[in-house]
Write a structure and sequence with these properties.
Helix content is about 10%, strand content about 45%. It is mainly beta and about 170 residues long.
Amino acid sequence: MKLLPSLAPLFLSSLVASKSFLFGSNEQHALVDDSLSVPGDNPLEFCTDPTAYSLTIHNVDLDPNPPEKGKALLIKAIGNFTEKVEQDAYILLSVKYGLITLINTKTGLCEQMKQVDMSCPLQGPKHFTKDVTLPKEIPRGSYTVQADVYTKDDKKITCLKAMVHFN
């Protein structure tokens, strides 16, 4: 199934959180506190107050926003790792289709960063641009993605979430 591998890089490579989309709408509408919104043109939101995270996300732009199935998605992100992130850092990734869990997995952060031509250790300012092609076969409906990112010593780097509706 092409859906799962296509959605995971979308949200892993951007390492961002989400605002929500209303069901059946192509417009973005914040359903929670705007102070958790990730700066830039994106449907992304932090899980909690990002000041405690060791990754400061300055901006994330998605084009198109909202993402569309069967089309290329351009992701541009700028951030700063305030602490050194080494090998064995990890992501707890959850992807749900409505109430059905499609993915609930632990994956290596450093392995995922290779998709955006970066490698560990990660420290200081970083930026990347990535094209992700979303398959046409994504079933219509709402998808919720959450990525909790931790150092090898279980210290939180960031937590990101997104809810996207595909027509």
